[in-house]
């Protein structure tokens, strides 16, 4: 072994052992005690040479656990491959002036052999006496044997530490795989399942023992050729798995690995069903937004064309007073319709976007909201047709009062306008539970024209109007606003109707303590 070992590498090997500043161990102390007795010396050491100190893993006859390494005997000993013996330090020019010789512990005799580990000298096994002495070949053989025992113990400790680290690593890997949300399959070179994690068991609905040995291609519903990645590459593909009562889409990532010298494959399976559904929902939402935009453009163009057309007539010629008034009335009516449409479209946009104004909540009485909605929505001529019935112990609700009153207003407006004057419209406010949650139901029941099942299925769509009565104005946005308002409050709407037999609409909202 070269005596010019790279010091940085030597120190790295020493530090990697994690042996410095550890507790004493009997396996080392037994050897130093034996050496002191065999050689009849007052001091024996397992000395580890750190960057600026000697640290003693084991010692006999010395009161300190470490000393400075400058001008020390052990520092010289690790720089040579053979045993270093100093029979009389006072006669050796290298050490005669050393403070270890002139001062405590007054070293006269030193014999030390380097301790090697991973190709580096990490320290020495050494003997010290305060008297000069001879050290023959028989003594040297014994010292070599004892130093070899120390080196073996160092190696055994390093092996035990490496094995413990491997066990920790394996335990960490097992814990990672067990808690990994994605499924992981280990396949042999033939493509059969060797092992899997719990997520895989849940994905296939089968135990690991049942999956073991199964051809992965059959499990994944693909050809064997799709499960043969080239070394250093990764295959990715999507497939569909049929499970009892469901079909799921999974993304598969497959890599070739070597385990214990044998080729294997690792397949990671990620359930992308929800992601695909979200993409489809987003595409559907985008299509609805485009349809909404096209319809909105048409709805805005109609009153705008009337306003422009009639105003142009007024600007190009003079009309008699009555005719001019009639044209102005049309312009005013279409302007009002346009403003109403714009306001409802802005309301819908604000609701869909959310924001601090939509997050406002206050504890209010649903009876008070229903009363206010009737007062502000129902025309004076029809107020006698509307009755309000309140159940007992109606809980308060925590809502945006303006929005809930707006939703009730739209439902009441439909009930009044789609029923004949003189026919009753009943409003009932009562406690109502839904899915185990306390809440309040506000029911509006009319005896109007009613709706078909097809109309009910579309009644909350933007710009849809159930029943084309020319005497009923509207844009088809009112019930869409109702749906958005209920959604942001965690509420729901129930509708019962038959064509020609009226409609019953119930708006359900959670009680204040159920939010």
From TrEMBL:
It catalyses: ATP + protein L-histidine = ADP + protein N-phospho-L-histidine. It comes from the Bacteria. Pfam families: GAF, HATPase_c, HisKA, PAS. One of its GO terms (molecular function) is ATP binding. Keywords: ATP-binding, Kinase, Nucleotide-binding, Phosphoprotein, Transferase. Transmembrane segments: none annotated. Its EC number is 2.7.13.3. Residues 295-513 form the Histidine kinase domain. Residues 169-214 form the PAS domain. InterPro entries: GAF, GAF-like_dom_sf, HATPase_C_sf, HATPase_dom, His_kinase_dom, HisK_dim/P_dom, HisK_dim/P_sf, PAS. This is histidine kinase. It comes from Massilia phyllostachyos. The lineage of its organism: Bacteria, Pseudomonadati, Pseudomonadota, Betaproteobacteria, Burkholderiales.
């Amino acid at each position: 072994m070269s005596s010019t070992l790279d010091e940085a590498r030597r120190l790295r090997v020493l530090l990697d052992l994690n042996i410095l500043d550890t507790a004493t161990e009997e396996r080392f102390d037994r050897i130093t005690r034996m050496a002191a007795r065999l050689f009849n010396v007052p001091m024996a050491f397992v000395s580890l040479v750190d960057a600026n100190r000697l640290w003693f893993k084991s010692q006999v006859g010395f009161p300190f656990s470490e000393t400075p390494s400058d001008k020390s005997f052990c520092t010289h000993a690790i720089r040579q491959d053979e045993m270093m013996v100093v029979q009389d330090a006072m006669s050796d020019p290298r050490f005669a002036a050393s403070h270890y010789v002139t001062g405590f512990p007054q070293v006269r005799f030193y014999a030390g052999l380097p301790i090697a580990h991973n190709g580096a000298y990490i320290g020495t096994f050494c003997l010290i006496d305060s008297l000069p002495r001879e050290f023959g070949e028989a003594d040297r053989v014994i010292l070599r044997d004892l130093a070899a025992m120390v080196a073996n113990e160092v190696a055994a400790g390093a092996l035990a530490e490496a094995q413990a680290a491997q066990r920790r690593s394996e335990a960490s890997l097992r814990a990672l795989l067990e808690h990994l949300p994605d499924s992981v399959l280990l396949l042999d070179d033939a493509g059969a399942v060797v092992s899997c994690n719990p997520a895989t068991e849940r994905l296939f609905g089968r135990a690991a023992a049942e999956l073991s040995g199964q051809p992965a291609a059959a499990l994944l519903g693909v050809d064997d050729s799709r499960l043969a990645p080239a070394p250093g590459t990764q295959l990715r593909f999507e497939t569909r798995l049929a499970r009892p009562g469901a079909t799921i889409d999974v993304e598969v990532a497959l890599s070739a690995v070597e385990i214990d010298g044998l080729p294997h494959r690792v397949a990671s399976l990620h359930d992308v069903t929800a992601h695909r559904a979200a993409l489809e929902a987003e595409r559907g939402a985008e299509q609805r937004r485009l349809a909404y935009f096209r319809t909105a453009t048409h709805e805005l163009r109609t009153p705008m064309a009337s306003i422009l057309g009639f105003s142009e007539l007024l600007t190009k010629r003079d009309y008699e007073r009555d005719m001019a008034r009639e044209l102005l009335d049309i312009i005013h009516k279409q302007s009002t319709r346009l403003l109403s449409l714009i306001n409802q479209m802005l309301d819908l946009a604000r609701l869909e976007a959310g924001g601090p104004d939509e997050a406002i909540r206050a504890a209010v009485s649903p009876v008070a909201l229903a009363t206010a909605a009737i007062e502000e929505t129902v025309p004076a001529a029809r107020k006698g047709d509307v009755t309000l019935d309140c159940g007992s112990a109606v809980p308060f609700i925590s809502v945006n009062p303006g929005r809930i009153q707006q939703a009730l207003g739209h439902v009441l407006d439909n009930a009044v306008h789609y029923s004949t004057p003189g026919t009753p419209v009943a409003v009932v406010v009562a406690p109502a539970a839904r899915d185990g949650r306390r809440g309040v139901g506000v029911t509006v029941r009319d005896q109007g024209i009613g709706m078909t099942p097809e109309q009910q299925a579309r009644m909350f769509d933007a710009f849809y109007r159930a029943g084309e009565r020319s005497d009923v104005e509207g844009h088809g946005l009112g019930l869409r606003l109702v749906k958005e308002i209920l959604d942001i409050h965690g509420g729901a709407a129930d509708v019962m109707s038959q064509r020609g037999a009226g409609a019953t609409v119930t708006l359900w909202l959670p009680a204040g303590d159920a939010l």
